[in-house]
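Thread: quick sanity check before group meeting

JM: Hey all, I'm pulling together slides for Thursday and realized we never actually wrote out the predicted structure for the chain we discussed last week. Dropping the sequence here so it's in one place. If anyone has concerns about the input, flag it before I start.
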Amino acid sequence: MADPTYLSDPSFAEEHDGPEVTSGYGNPTGRHDPSEAQIRRRCEAIRKAVPRRPVGEVAERWTPPVVLAPEGFDPELVGKAV
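JM (edit): ok, ran it. Output follows.
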């Protein structure tokens, strides 16, 4: 399987300059996580290569479902103390 095209973006070749990674015992490892700016640039590269709608968005317009009222339901009493 071929590598995804976004991996050729320069942001993925940068050396990480975020916080230092520590071992499970809290000892420094000499490695770093990506910084917030690097993560942002990588996300932009992925979005350019794989365009899609943000989570929760769909092409169709949302309409609320139609639900039948239960037997004996009185809309005049909704929200009032009984």
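AS: nice. The chain is about 15% helix and 10% strand. Strands lie at 20-22, 28-32.
JM: adding both to the slides.
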